Amino acid sequence: MVDEWQRLCVKLQIVGRRAHDARLIAYMRGHGLDKLFTLNVSDFQAFTADGIQLI
């Protein structure tokens, strides 16, 4: 899952605090999940281009 985390950070040019969001998405991917329920849609909007559906 670290490889997926690194891939996301490089692809989406993520640095700093947003790396924690990328780590969550990487763990989701590792477990076959593609939907995220969040009240902070703007924090995760960049990941929709990578196939994550925000609910």
Task: Describe the protein in words.
The chain has 55 residues and is mostly helical. It has one domain (2-54). Helices cover 49% and strands 7% of the residues. It has 3 helices and 2 strands, in the order H-H-E-H-E. It has helices spanning 2-11, 18-30, 41-44; strands at 35-36, 53-54. A two-stranded parallel sheet has the order 1-2. It is globular, with a radius of gyration of 10 Å. The mean pLDDT is 95.
Radius of gyration, whole Å: 10 Å
Number of helices: 3
Strand content: 5-15%
Number of domains: 1
Taking the sheet with the most strands, its summary is: 2 strands, parallel
Structural class, by secondary structure, is: mainly alpha
* Low-pLDDT residue spans: none
Helix content: 40-55%
Number of strands: 2
Q: Largest sheet, order of strands side by side? A: 1-2
Large-scale geometry: globular
The H-and-E topology, N to C, reads as HHEHE
Spatial separation of the terminal alpha carbons = 23 Å
Mean pLDDT: 95
